[in-house]
Amino acid sequence: MKTTQLSRAIFLALLVAGSAQAAKTDVTIGMQLEPPNLDPTGGAAAAIDEVVYANVFEGLTRFGPDGSVLPALAKTWEISEDGLTYTFELQAGVAFHDSSAFDADDVTFSLERAMAEDSTNAQKQLFANIESVENVDGAVVIKLKTADGNLLFNLAWGDAVIVAPESIETLATAPVGTGPFIFKNWVQGDQIVLEKNAAYWGEAVALDKATFKFISEPTAAFAAMMAGDLDAFPNYPAPENLPQLEADPRFSVVLGSTEGETILSTNNAIEPLDNVLVRQAIAHAIDRSAIIEGAMYGYGTPIGTHFAPHHPAYVDLTGKSEYDPEKAKALLKEAGLADGFTTTLKLPPPAYARRGGEIIASQLREVGIDTEISNLEWAQWLEQVFKGKDFGLTIVSHTEPMDIGIYAKPDYYFQYDNADFQALMESFNAETDEAKRTELLQQAQNIITDDYVNGYLFQLAKTGVASVKLKGLWENSPTQANDLTGVYWED
Amino acid sequence: MSDSLLRLDKVNLSIHETPILHDVSLQVHAGSVLGIIGESGSGKSMTAFSILQLLPQGAVCSGNIHFDGMQINNLSEEQLCHIRGNEIGMVFQEPMTALNPVQNIGAQVAECIALHKSVSRSQALTQAAAVLERVGLPNNEFPLTRYPHELSGGQRQRVVIAIAVALEPKLLIADEPTTALDVTTQAEILALLKQLVVESDMAMMLITHDLAVVSEVADNLVIMRDGRVLDHGPTRTVFNELKHPYTRALYDASSHTPERNASIEQVVPLVELTDLVCEYPMARRSLFEPRKMFRAVNQVSLSIFSGESVGLVGESGCGKSTLAKALLGLSPIVSGRIMLRGEQVHSGVKVSNKVRREMQVVFQDPYSSFNPRHRVGRLIAEPLHLLENQPDKHQRVKLIRVTLESVGLDGEDANKYIHEFSGGQRQRIAIARALIIKPALIILDEAVSALDVSVRAQVLDLLAELSDSHELAYLFISHDLSVVRSITDRVLVMKQGQIVERGDTDSVFISPEHNYTKTLLAAAPQLPQSNAEASRI
Amino acid sequence: MLHYIFKRTLILLATLFVASLVVFVTIEVVPGDPASYMLGLNAQEDTVAALRAELGLDKSRPARYWTWLSGLVTGDFGTSYTYRTPVADMVGDRLWVSLPLAIYALVLATLIAFPAGVYAASRRGGITDTVVMALTQLGVAIPNFWFAMLLVLLFAIKLGWFSAGGFPGWDAGVWQAMKSLTLPAIALALPQASILTRVMRSSLLDVLNEDFIRTARAKGLSRRQALWKHALRNAMVPVLTIMGLQFSFLLAGAIIIENVFFLPGLGRLIFQSIASRDLIVVESVVMILVLAVVLVTFAIDLAYAWVDPRLRGSR
Amino acid sequence: MRLRSFILGALLVLIFFSAALISYVWTPFDITQIDIKLRFKSPDFTYWLGTDHYGRDMLSMLMIGARTSIAVAIVAVGIGMLFGVPLGLAAAAYRGRFLDEAIMRGNDLVFAFPALLIAIMITAVYGPGALNAIIAIGIFNIPVFARLSRGAALSLWKRDFILAARAAGKGVTRISFEHILPNIANLLIVQGTIQFSLGILAEAGLSFVGLGTQPPIPSWGRMLADSQTLIYTEPQLALFPGLAILLTVLGLNLLGDGLRDWLDPRLRHER
Known about the structure:
The structure holds four protein chains of four kinds.
Chain B: E1 4-15, E2 18-29, E3 33-37, H1 44-52, E4 59-67, E5 70-71, H2 77-83, E6 88-91, H3 105-116, H4 121-134, H5 153-165, E7 171-175, H6 183-199, E8 203-208, H7 211-217, E9 220-225, E10 228-234, H8 235-241, H9 245-254, E11 271-281, E12 293-304, E13 309-313, H10 320-327, E14 335-340, E15 343-344, H11 353-358, E16 359-362, H12 376-380, H13 393-406, H14 423-435, E17 441-445, H15 453-469, E18 473-478, H16 481-487, E19 490-495, E20 498-504, H17 505-510, H18 515-523
Parallel strand pairs in B: 3-8, 3-9, 6-7, 7-8, 13-18, 13-19, 16-17, 17-18
Antiparallel strand pairs in B: 1-2, 1-4, 4-5, 9-10, 11-12, 11-14, 14-15, 19-20
Helix pairs in contact in B: 3-4, 3-5, 4-5, 5-6, 9-15, 14-15
Chain C: H1 2-28, H2 34-39, H3 45-55, H4 61-74, H5 87-122, H6 127-141, H7 144-158, H8 174-208, H9 211-219, H10 223-260, H11 266-275, H12 279-307
Chain D: H1 2-25, H2 58-93, H3 98-112, H4 115-126, H5 130-157, H6 160-167, H7 172-208, H8 220-228, H9 236-263, H10 265-268
Helix pairs in contact in D: 1-2, 1-9, 2-3, 2-5, 2-7, 3-5, 4-5, 5-7, 7-8, 7-9, 8-9
């Protein structure tokens, strides 16, 4: 190291530190998982949306911070009487990042691409109900097969963003959207950098530059925050460090809710779990508070059914499965399994599953139910549990919004087949009146709770950590996203 | 006493509290050779090392050592370093390991020169070349860039000598310089040493266990045993008077010829070899050339009659061991026939047990021919494996005890381990192992060369007795002519895989025909006649 | 000498070929399919099938092995299933983390081990010898990932001299990059340095008992001169063997250390691609590690010949 | 000094072995009992080493963890010896011929894969677990013992007592097992202890990255991994498992050195 090189390096370091004092316009966000690629329409990984949703790509509609559906590229829209035809007026003067123009043809291209036979869109079923999409002199007209109250909601998903045919080839590695931030570069395994889109059609954003750094190990996340390498960690992975971060004046810990219902999925098709008494016994054998305290260090709200508590339609049914080991043993005896039984407990990688699994295993052992734990990679979990349905119990958090509809699919991995629940969901989908939809949702929650289909544990909390001076980050996450449009540095 | 170059008086040495030398006093005069004789463990090497103060850790040395008028045993390490190599040179026993294998010979000799004289590297190298020429390694044949592993034992010893005499030291200490060498090479090295002493008026201290070697080279003698000087004086007087009983015992053992009645029956030969050829592959020179084969045994024919003791002499590398191994079926044969009692024996690959029952072997190194993990009983009973009907447990124990006693050991030794026995006793056990299945022929491959003179005599006596009592034939392989002469009836001389001369032992020794035999006999050092009244044991 | 090199090269190529076969077979039977992993929970059957076709996963195994192998030779390792970028680039920038780390650790280990080993050997039985031996005993016994955690706790969090992990990339300045590799290198180097010191010491002690050292002393060289000029070079052969072996330990150890310090190196890439069943990346990275180890062993063999003329084959 | 370190080594190994054996019969507390209220207790009279992040007694966890680590290491060394030694003996017996070359090339191949890489590949393919860890570590031990026993056997084959045995008509296999094996037994024992300690480190490493023994069976490596996130608030959780690994490996290495000196006659007089 010749001396000149050394002195230049020190000078450089000072320069960088110096500039930090002036009003900060760049931000470094921590993320646990690195997206496999950056095409939200081509893959389901949550991490893709966490980088690009609302920042790089925009759909016709978008989710607001509280989960409500707001206009985006579609300025206004009218719905026909029979609810089958939607006409969208598009924003004017909008351009893609490669400065190619944005118009109705791009919308038809994007939606038809997602609906196509050989499409690799992970949420293809969102578009199943669409009959056709046309460009009628500048406006977009969507015709539906059957009336469906969810269309605006579905179009707000990350998988329904609008892309341009010109940039479709290299979308996965060089995303081109219409959003307020342009993709700058991507150091695989380390970080992705976005920069301000000067020619953005909408409101100007406060930030010039945003860097997403990928840190999967909880210890490393803590060290990075403490060392000041990161400005914010929206989904902080290690709840056990939160008290210490909260005590540090530099940081503020923001607790919000997510769409992640964490459940003890039970295979309703195999012996003896097909007996509702056994499932009820399991429900009473589980002490939710111990799990939340043990696995998530207190961060998480108990749920009695498969529904997000922050949603207005939520019904608190935790009372039907309160912790009562004696009752659980009695139920088992009633079901003819006085001396208990053995089943498998297959756990995917996340911490809530691995830690929750050990605690649940010891709680079930109390009432005589022995579980063989096996820890699986995501790929193996999908193969054995999700597709193969070869499991007794598993723990997973369903993070898609409003996904109570999965109980209406008999071939879904926990294989619950209840005709009147399926009928209920049909009528819900067709219903457009808000009050009626809420009432139907509440009925649905009661049915799956009474049937004890799964062990409903807790709603994943959004444990966001950010620098005290950084404002505008989403408190809750109605969908997986880090919307930076409203983010700014205070002083 | 006045002009003695080196004088030791009352030198005592102990290592880790075990006493090694007791009041050793001797002196060496410039231009003269002092021979130090003693059997292994007599402390002769330690005397040499205490002069140079090259002693192992934990050594305590007292008394004083005067060299060239100065007391050197209390000098500082730095001053001693100045003397070593410069004033006193040293030559060691094992030439194969005495040189640094990863450095070429030029550098190793030049290093000694550059160390003591302030000369440039190139000057040191030219002087090194000169010294190497002087010790008989001409540069054209042996360039300085040669590595030790490319030289033979004798040539390496010449390099060690070159290093020792490079700076014309006043004193040269030679610790068993020729023990590991062949007879002819030994003669050349001794001649070289004598010539160097004369040329540069150098004093030499020659340490050896071989009376014959020292009698030809040394002017004065010192005889040591268990760290004490027992006898000393000019060589001639020591040999004539044989004053000290130990000196007399040493002398008798060296010239000992065991009692044998050579009974030879000229019936069908026990073993007959015709046109035997043995080869083994040499290191592959380059990938494309096929592997060159080295012909160790080249068209050898010989026959051994039962009860006869045949000698096979030759220098190392002449193929005598390969021949022995071929006979025992231990190494592959290319062509030729081996007949046992008139019956075709060797059919190319495997030697049958029937044949092996007739032939057994005794090796040279007593410390390597036994499995340290087994008891002696099990060791000598191993050949019983060859018998069709294995003796039962009881018979086996009795057989072991009888065989042990027949070689002069105690029946109880059967449950001891091999490390509890001396070299001589181990060779007796090896002979017991060979005897146990009553073979017709025992092959003795350098069986006594590793033994001290006195022990060697006892083992030779044992072999003589056994050949009479057990109707045994011997094939006695050795490079030591005096031993072969004392025990064999007939002798075969071997050179580069061929037998160059054969005949009765006495006629071959007295009037050799082939000139190779002549050079061999001339090179072997002769023990002078002592006019002390020869006492027979 | 040429013959010696030619033979070793032949063995090297054969080992690489067989290794590639073993790697492909073991990894191909891994349950779980990357396509379904990428499409997540509620992907339909046909979308998964479409993606498999797109990634070429539906071709027969021998065909895929052949394309991968021919790619290996030309340096094109194929495209990653999940990242959809050429594996070569991904592995390229990761190599720029793992390789410098391994070399940095090896250099550190050697710089510590050589003087310590030689010093301990020359003062056999002295206090320094016992102290060095005790320290190396500890160094060998400490699990390096635990040692790494302690390093982070002390230097990164308590003293704040170093960052707790992460790699700023070489364009952030050589000094910064090396600084971030320092703690991981120390954690990796400790056990290697201890083993190397012990081997150095015992090998030197063996050589010091040899006859030619006595010859050197008889020439007038002091104890230290004899050690430096004659013993050291002869002691190198066993030391080289251990250094060769250790390089493969180093690479393996790096996989764990990269986890503790979240360095974007080959180790973590292997873990991530196994988790996402990105088979082509796993196979290529394993092959690169094997290539590195085999090349190092080849270099060590050549070094033998340079150190010890006896191995150079007859003139 | 040597004798003292040998005794220290033997003592440490004894402690951990007995802890592992006792754990089959009795542990201070039942580790299946998870009681979140009792977590992070620092060492006191009831919980000698405090409790972990699930409120389980650290001492009991360490005892059962010792059982897994020692079991995995022993079986792995066993595999190494069972397959490695015969291969080495065979290679030496047929030295220079095809079998020798094949075995040696096989060794080079296994050595080419960094040890942990084999472990990762196996556990990734067949799923994590103690059995796969055993196989993975075992496979790496085979070439170590093969190479060691071949080297030692080669030098023995040159010895005269082997020629004598051949002259007594004994076949290659009988000689290998009757004469060669007993004489290299010392070397194998010493190398066995070294590989044993490496096995413990390897198992801990594997469990640390989640590929070794799976819950609910405790293992030192995984206890370290679990304690990683809590290292800033509860450092003692990382302290005890790390120390356990360190002391066991140290004990084994000292034992190995002591055995080498005691069994190898050449070094004996040096003491």
